[in-house]
Structure formats: C-alpha cells, structure tokens
Amino acid sequence: MIEFQNIGKSYDGVMAVDNLNLHIAQGELVVFIGPSGSGKSTALKMINRMIDHDRGHILLEGREIDSFDVRELRRRMGYAIQSVGLFPHWTVARNIATVPQLLGWPRERIHQRVCELLTVFGMAPAQFLQRLPHQLSGGQQQRVGVARALAADPAVLLMDEPFGALDPVTRATLQLELKRVHQSSGKTIVLVTHDIDEALLLADRIVLLNHGQVVQVATPLDLLSNPADDFVLDFVGRADLGIKLLSLKPVAPLVRRAPAPPGSPTLANTASLREAVATLAVHGASVVSIVNLQQEVVGSLHAADVFSPATPSHG
C-alpha cells in the first residue's frame, strides 16, 4: 500500500529522517512515535508531499508519489491534525463536504455522506449539520475534523497528533471511536503521536524513531515483550512495563467456567487484564464475575490466575 525505500530528509544539513525503510500494508494502522524531533511528523508529511523527501522512493499502491499530481494525491488521502483547521464561518455540513464538493459529487450524495459520518461519530445530523465550529466543544470539533478527512472515502488516512489538545476523557473516547472506525472500515491509517499509551491502544504496528532513524518496528505486544534496547525500554516505560503488558492481554483465556461467589464485582468478557487488576484492586476482591454483552454470567476470573505463569484449570 505505502512503501518507504531508503528515504532521507535533511534540514540545513541535519538529518530529520535517515534511511527509512518501511512497508505499510493495506488496512493496517501504523503509529509513528518517538521523542520530540525524532522525525515522526516529517515521515508522515512526506506521504502526501506536504514535505518532499530528499532521497529514496515513496510508493503508493506501487506507484511513485512524485508521479501523482499533488492535488490528486492529497485528495486520495484524508488528513487530520491536532489543530483541526475547520473553516470558522462554514457550517459543520459544509466543512465535512469540502473534498467531495471539490470532486464534483452530486449534492444528494454529499448530504448522505455527511449524515453518515456524523452518525458514525455520535453526532445527530439534525442537531449538528448547521452548527458553526465555535458552537462545538473541542471534542466535537475534532470529530468533525476526522469526519472531513474521511468524507471522500480516501484510501489512506493520515493523522498528526489528532487528539493531543483534548482533555483525557474526550481523548480516550475518540481513541476508541477511531479504533472502531478502523476495524469497521478497513482503512489504512498512519498516525503520529507522542503518547505511548495511545500507540499501544491503537496500533497494529508501532514505528519507534529517534534522531530520524528507526529504532524498532513491532506490534504493541512485541514492543513491550522484546524491546530492542534500553532506549526502547525507557521510552515505553520501564517502571510500568508489566501494567502495559496487561493492557494488551484479554481476560478471555483465563476465564474459568465456574461462577464467582455471589456479590462478586463484574467485568466484561472483552476487558483487558489491566482492567481486571483495577477491578480486583478497587473492590479488594480475589475473584470477579465475567459477563457477556447481554450481561449474562459466563464464568469467573481469579486474581491468582492473572499473576500465575501457569495455565489455570478451567473447571
């Protein structure tokens, strides 16, 4: 889908990105992460030619990005940024419709697409279509910004620190919405963040950069389980590595079929082991009752099983 081949970019003789080689598969969500100045945003912006690379080749579906008309290239890629960049005097509907209008879509098709996207992001069209950006909360503005990036059904969605300016509750909500949209749409998404927890939650693969060079490319679980060196270990958080690992592991494999004692706290069967530990700690319990989406009890999870290296008996 997207391929970086020996990509280099320098500013005033200083390498911002140095010999980047990476293949991003169709439908994959890849997160670039690293310290400030590591080259992560530069790498992202070279994909839609907001920044031109100095050497190497970037391919989109096997074709050199330099061979595209730059406007055609950008219309094939949605782009969402931290500052949102909504047009202040345009309604929500018109903001979202920006690219479809440029592409000459019929009015009815545009209206249907705008309403569809607002619904996807939990914003009732009847309530929000005619609002102006200043009439929205920060989280709502960010939703509209992502909806606008998705409006023309682009092959690729590029996101540069999209949730960085939001409060923690709104940020967590939008992260889950993005995860859901990605899973349902199968879009190829490339996201830049400085937040390791966001990367671990969202990514299929994480690309960790430092001084413009790739330090490690790995799935979230592999990054935590097999850090390439001390820099990776420190970046992901040496002190709470175990807790982060628990957040990537589901409770389901450890659920016993036998029910928990009456009055035990409950936990969804889709929860992570990190959520299980939190529930156990909050309630001072040694076992939780596991329920499905219909709130039916399907078994129990014991604290001893969470922390035991041995496989529990599921009797």
The biggest beta sheet is recorded as: 6 strands, mixed
Helix run count: 14
SSE succession: EEEHEEHEHHHHHEHEHEEHHHEHEEH
In one word, what is the shape?
globular
Average of pLDDT: 93
Helix content: 25-40%
Number of strands: 13
State the end-to-end distance.
Answer: 46 Å
| Rg, Å, rounded | 22 Å
**Which strand order does the major sheet show?**
6-7-8-3-9-10
- Percentage of residues in DSSP E strands: 15-25%
Short synopsis of the structure:
This protein has 315 residues and is α/β, with parallel strands linked by helices.
Give the helices and strands, then pairings.
Blueprint: E1 2-11, E2 14-24, E3 29-33, H1 40-47, E4 55-60, E5 63-64, H2 70-75, E6 77-81, H3 92-96, H4 98-102, H5 107-120, H6 125-128, H7 138-150, E7 156-160, H8 168-185, E8 188-193, H9 196-202, E9 205-210, E10 213-218, H10 220-225, H11 230-236, H12 241-247, E11 266-268, H13 273-283, E12 287-291, E13 297-302, H14 303-307
Parallel strand pairs: 3-8, 3-9, 6-7, 7-8, 11-12
Antiparallel strand pairs: 1-2, 1-4, 4-5, 9-10, 12-13
Relevant terms:
single chain; 315 residues; alpha/beta; six-stranded mixed β-sheet; four-stranded antiparallel β-sheet
